[in-house]
Write a structure and sequence with these properties.
Order of helices and strands: HHEEEHEHEEHEHEEHHHH
Structural class: alpha+beta
Number of strands: 9
Bound molecules: copper (II) ion
CATH class of the largest domain: Mainly Beta
Number of helices: 10
Shape: globular
Number of domains: 2
Oligomer: single chain
Strand content: 15-25%
Radius of gyration: 23 Å
Helix content: 25-40%
Largest sheet: 9 strands, antiparallel
């Protein structure tokens, strides 16, 4: 079903384009769905040693259906087993030795960037989740393993992926705010939870910035439980970015000046070009593809 529609839509759009003569505007709209995005997850400064952990995220959006495939390595693997250590971190004894939960979100509507060390506003040597908000924005979607994927599961460790390395894959209905942010280029994937062995000292004793108390705990979870470990802006992957001519505005004059008028036209700027010229361009493009 999805396979059929994926091929049928561009084909139909191309047919309509050929009939109307507005050939050059068709590829952009035909390529809009499904759209592909990707993020490279890198260590958040202060919180994770440079290069100690990394990850990748692939996301496709077909209407409001999002398919996420995320792979991470190098994160905190297991929760401590020592009860005193656990108590100090605000982690109930029942969690001893369990896979370290990594709550994991798409943050939205911020600057679309990851925090630099200067985001540590209170100077305690840790970038808390809240201190990162200016850069990556607020939580829009939760990569939960089951149930809701909105903010209602944002800090629910029972549905968070866990362990030092994991692959998270899920298809779900994505909320409109997150979709809008992804399309606007301001969505950022953030994986939380610091490795106690390498985390800044203050993160072991300071309560987390999101007021999370784990079920059964008698105090707030320490900052290591929620501070951002990995971060990466979601960007349109090359396949979906290429047909969108909007970004070529600056390149148009360059292409024209070196005489490559055909490329100039295909850049999407020839919206009002004569239909005849458009048809020629389309025909030549098809020829070159055959
Ligand atoms: Cu988050």
């Amino acid at each position: 079903m999805s396979k059929i529609s994926r091929f049928a839509v561009p084909f139909a759009a191309a047919g309509i384009a050929a009939l109307t003569g507005l050939a050059l505007t068709a590829p952009a709209s035909a390529a809009a769905e499904p759209a592909s995005y990707q993020a490279t997850l890198a260590a958040v400064p202060l919180n994770t040693p440079d290069g100690a952990a990394s990850g990748t995220v692939m996301l496709t959006l077909d209407g409001d259906q999002a398919t996420v495939t995320e792979t991470v390595t190098g994160l905190a693997d297991k929760l401590p087993t020592d009860t005193k250590t656990l108590a100090a971190l605000g982690i109930p004894a029942g969690f001893a030795g369990a896979p370290f939960p990594h709550v994991n979100h798409i943050h939205i509507a911020g600057q679309g960037t990851c925090p630099t060390a200067s985001a540590d506003a209170n100077g305690d040597g840790v970038i808390s989740t809240v201190e990162g908000h200016d850069a990556y924005g607020m939580i829009g979607t939760t990569f939960s393993t089951k149930g809701a994927t909105d903010t209602s599961t944002a800090t629910d460790v029972t549905v968070a992926p866990g362990g030092g390395s994991f692959t998270y894959k899920r298809t779900f209905t994505m909320n409109a705010d997150t979709i809008a942010s992804i399309k606007a280029g301001t969505a950022v994937v953030v994986v939380h939870g610091l490795n106690p062995a390498t985390a800044p000292k203050a993160s072991l004793s300071t309560p987390n910035s999101l007021n999370v108390t784990l079920p059964g705990a008698d105090k707030k979870l320490a900052l290591i439980g929620t501070a951002p470990a990995l971060c990466g802006p979601l960007q349109a992957s090359q396949m979906s970015a290429m047909p969108s001519g909007g970004a070529n505005t600056g390149g148009g004059s360059m292409a024209a000046s070196d005489g490559n008028t055909m490329e100039y036209a295909l850049g999407g700027l020839a919206l009002v070009a004569a239909a005849g010229a458009g048809a020629v361009a389309l025909r030549r493009r098809r020829t070159s593809e055959n």
